[in-house]
Design a protein that fits this description.
By secondary structure, this protein is α/β, with parallel strands linked by helices. 32% of the residues lie in helices and 14% in strands. Helix 3 packs parallel to helix 5.
Amino acid sequence: MSQLFSPYTLGDLTLANRIVIAPMCQYSAEDGRATDWHIIHLGHLALSGAGLLFLEATAVEPEGRISPFDLGLWSDETEAALAKALAAVRAHSNMPIGIQLGHAGRKASVAQPWAGGGQLGLDQGGWQTLAPSAVAFEGHARAPHALTADEIARLVESFALAAKRSVRLGLDAIELHGAHGYLLHQFLSPLSNRREDAYGGSLENRMRFPLAVFEAVKAAVPSAFPVGIRVSGTDWVEGGWDIEQTLTFASALQARGCSFIDVSGGGLSAAQKIPLGPSYQVPLARAVKQATGLPTIAVGLITEADQAEAIIGTGDADFVALARGMLYDPRWPWHAAAQLGATVKPPSQYLRSQPRQLRNLFG
């Protein structure tokens, strides 16, 4: 039996297989509101046969968006727009859907990638960014505002309120975005956190805000509702956040009831030196899983069915997450099942597409 296509239970959520569709920013929202693009985008991914689909990074306040076109969940209007998109998807798919809640911090207020991705001026629709310290991200001319203790407390509440909206929307899981150089990661890394108060300096202090966010979100949802986090296992920069600190952070999360950890890497500094190659970040996930036993998601140039099967089968991780590979091949789980002798459940409208030589693919 294929391990990749074996079921797994997280809290009150049972997944049909170990394939996760990672959050992928679409830069196509209107003032934080989901649009018809999200219905099309999520709709076709929800027919892919994956075990779990995560919505893109969703900002908990307007200033937390990466670009002016990012998805948000901070108001009745953004909640209603997302509810409309989800209703359209769910009408034709029972795939579990999770949401990634985040705040871009100092990496906010930039143009869409296809428009250059540079920092937007205040006269170009940009805004004053926020961060643990007034240290600009590389290439940004405007430094962020260093958050006060009161502002940090307000942000913790913003995450909790977005979590309550997520539950009200009927979403199945929450992943906090603590990776890729965004706000929670900015607090964790000594490269971006230069504070000298209770939120900076020691590892314990640098973890304080991310852990407060996790505790607030966990308290805002039902007890068995899966709440996890995406982390960068390392900054890939000497003197920055690294796997040893990640393991300490993971243990602290485990003690607070974390349901899963999605282990990625980098994104905080332009000085990063990443050894790109197939499965290049899987060792980070393996280290977290071995140290904590927490359900772990592996990412990083996972493109082949046998490769994914090996990651699950050898116990390196409990799930594999695909992003760009899933966009390139939205039926990747079908093709992986065909290769591994497993089955997937397609929509009834597609049953007749089963290849003649794969008579058991659709069960």
